[in-house]
Amino acid sequence: MRKTEQTEPDRSLAAARDHAPQMPDTLRQRILADARAALPAADPFPAPGARQQWRLAWRWAVPGLAGAACATLAGFWIGAAVPLAPDAPVWALAALDYLDGVAQPLMGMADPLAMEF
Predict the structure, then answer these.
(1) Torsion 26-28-31-36 (CA) sign
(2) pTM of the shown model
């Protein structure tokens, strides 16, 4: 780009900033008055049913959260404590040995003193 192309928009924008149009005070006051009239009236007290709505929501939410927690714990227990058949492959038995030897003491499900440290 040439230098004149860069400075021409700058000149016109500077001229627009220097000669910005001014809003008459009567128009500004009228706009502000209309805006104040359009604002809703402030309610000093909350709706009487707001607290009951929260209680109702918690009455519905807490059993659902408790059920989800129980299902999570049951799924973990089923996954961790599945009994194996006597003819299970060796790798499956090794995985359960790892669970018994390392994971259960870390989870607090076994006595660390029984691990013969």
Answers:
(1) negative
(2) 0.31
